[in-house]
Amino acid sequence: MLDLRPNCERCDRDLPPQADARICSFECTFCPDCAEKALGGECPNCGGGFEKRPVRPAALLDKFPASTERVVKPAP
Fold first, then answer.
1. Residue 23: DSSP 8-state
2. φ and ψ at 35, to 5 degrees?
3. Given 18, 22, 52, 57, which residue has the most CB atoms within 10 angstroms?
4. Domain ranges in the chain?
């Protein structure tokens, strides 16, 4: 099951479970601006591409909550 991380790893923008976000196959999570513009569609952690993060139905968030652990790796 996806972590649904709460923030962009580059700019630390909040990304609630229903937000438009991008993930790689390792679940590195970025906002669309960072993923597409700043990173050119390539994950800086693994070199993989990004896909749109799926949205977990609101009815299932109580049983399967999103992660609260923030991961931030600011650009050099």
1. E
2. -60, -45
3. 22
4. 1-62
Please identify which residue in the block is written with the tokens 């992660």. Answer: 67
For the domain made up of 1-62, the CATH class stated in words is alpha beta
**Statement: residue 75 has pLDDT above 80:** no
Residue 50, CA distances (Å) to 46, 63, 64, 65, 67 in order: 11, 27, 23, 23, 19
Q: Residue 23: beta bridge partners? A: 29, 51
pTM score, whole prediction:
0.90
| Per-residue model confidence as pLDDT tens digits over 14-41 | 999 999 999 999 999 999 999 999 999 9
Structure-block tokens of residue 59: 């009815």
> Strand runs (DSSP E) across the chain, as ranges?
22-23, 29-30, 51-52
